[in-house]
Amino acid sequence: MPDPDFQLTADFYFPEEGTPSLDVQEVVKLIERSLPAAIIDFERGRQHVQANIDRLKSLGAPEIIYRGEYQLLDRTIYVEIPIPDRAEKLVGFTWGFSYLDGCLSLECNPFHMDALKSGGLYVAQALDLRLSLVSADDLEIGILYKPGQLSPTELIEAHFADLAAVSQIRTVTDDWQSRIESACVTWLNEHPAEQTVKRWRAVVTDGHSLAESLIHRLTSMGTVRKASIVDFDREFWHSCFALEYDDWSGLVNLSGLPQPLLEHG
């Protein structure tokens, strides 16, 4: 089921293309050297991979889907990183660092937005990696945050690489929250994918409650200083909301409909 709270994860990746990949043993050495308080556990990594294999089998997936997972049984580690001056921890799994596949995707346990932000910045600096805070891939409602002041064009490029080109940026001078609410209501009422609608209606009562949850997550990052609609050429995405904060830049979109959703509040 979708997460109605829009809990984000901290994704870490190499800053430059061509950076040499690191296998799991090299990753262990890097983390032990750079984050000595971190816990690294191969057995929990193995259990995680085995559980995924068992899940795919139970769903009747053909062997070709999960065959490659067996290679990861003894190459996957569980990573637990304490966040300085916080009770929360960042936790996750990895089997190596690479530019194409990324490095780490860590959840905040228990989830707290301030802890995720401070912990993400701490780990990124310690490991010399870039950081994004992102929503789950299966939400159909995408949230992306990056530290610092980035233009809407830079955010689109970071999120879509060379898959989309920005055509127009329009500053929103009215209430951006009203636009989000209107977009959520239309999105849930008119989305063409029946399964998507069923999944979301199982966890939210209507488009207004979906909007309330989404706006709560967006404002939990801090005060929105500026909002813009970013138009770009990607089918069934059309436009995103770019949000500017004091120390972060954000992007939010609702995908899947054949018409723009953010035009009216």
Give the ordered list of helices and strands.
EEHEHHEEEEHEEHEHHHEEE
Structural class: alpha+beta
Strand order of the largest sheet: 3-4-5-7-1-8-9-13-12-11-10
Average pLDDT: 90
Please provide the count of β strands: 13
**First-residue to last-residue Cα separation:** 28 Å
Shape: globular
Low-confidence stretches are none
Helix content, binned percent: 25-40%
Major beta sheet, specifics?
11 strands, antiparallel
As a whole number of angstroms, the C-alpha radius of gyration is: 19 Å
Binned strand content: 25-35%
Counted by DSSP, the helix tally is 8
What does this structure look like?
- The chain is of the alpha+beta class and about 260 residues long.
- The strands form two sheets. The protein has an eleven-stranded antiparallel sheet with strand order 3-4-5-7-1-8-9-13-12-11-10, sandwiched between helices.
- About 30% of the residues are buried.
- It contains eight helices and 13 strands.
- The longest helix is centred in the first third of the chain and has 17 residues, at about 40-60.
Observed structural traits:
265 residues, alpha+beta, eleven-stranded antiparallel β-sheet
Short description:
This protein is of the alpha+beta class. It is 35% helix and 26% strand.
List the helices and strands and how they pair.
Layout: E1 9-13, E2 22-23, H1 24-34, E3 39-41, H2 42-58, H3 63-66, E4 77-82, E5 89-94, E6 96-97, E7 104-109, H4 113-127, E8 130-134, E9 141-147, H5 152-160, E10 166-171, H6 176-190, H7 194-201, H8 207-219, E11 226-232, E12 239-244, E13 248-254
Antiparallel strand pairs: 1-7, 1-8, 2-6, 3-4, 4-5, 5-7, 8-9, 9-13, 10-11, 11-12, 12-13
Helix pairs in contact: 6-8
